[in-house]
């Protein structure tokens, strides 16, 4: 995995072989962060990364100056890898939480400006992610929820859905909570 921009730009990190997750490809990650660069000020946001895996997306937000990033993953291997990155890079604004993502959403700890969720493509509850986030008030007004998924998932008729972007076999569905709500 490679950091695209910011403080850690160009740094490469290597998860152990047989890592239990599918990292977002560099191609899709570059496209996603190109979109976000035009929509948010990275230095003023608090981020939640659900199904964080390698911490690839979390580290990209941290590298770009996010105020705080919380990464949630159920895998002890993933959490250990992210904790190792946090320690080796001496990152103080990165919290890693070992928990199932939907259970974490049920425990309101704070509100976030950006929430990124990248469940496994075979995760049976992907359609529940937006509802869990919005019903538990995890997203701040004017915040952005992004769910990474494959083409079998269709969020277009889901509350607060705004758009979809497709990059090869990966799709990003965007949701937003307007300031008026």
What does this structure look like?
The protein is of the alpha/beta class and 181 residues long. It has one domain: Vaccinia Virus protein VP39 (Rossmann fold, 3-Layer(aba) Sandwich). 25% of the residues lie in helices and 26% in strands. It contains five helices and seven strands. It has helices spanning 26-37, 56-63, 76-88, 101-105, 129-135, and strands spanning 46-50, 68-73, 94-98, 112-117, 139-149, 161-167, 170-176. A seven-stranded mixed β-sheet has the order 3-2-1-4-5-7-6, with helices on both faces. The protein is globular, with a radius of gyration of 15 Å. The model has no long low-confidence stretch (mean pLDDT 92).
How is this structure best summarized?
The protein is α/β, with parallel strands linked by helices. Helix content is 25%, strand content 26%.
H and E string:
HEHEHEHEHEEE
| Gyration radius, in Å | 15 Å
Broad structural category: alpha/beta
- Order of strands in the sheet with most strands: 3-2-1-4-5-7-6
Give the uncertain stretches in residue-range form: none
The CATH architecture assignment turns out to be: 3-Layer(aba) Sandwich
- Proportion of residues in helical segments: 10-25%
Fourth CATH level, the homologous superfamily: Vaccinia Virus protein VP39
What key attributes describe this structure?
25% helix, 26% strand, 181 residues, globular, Rossmann fold
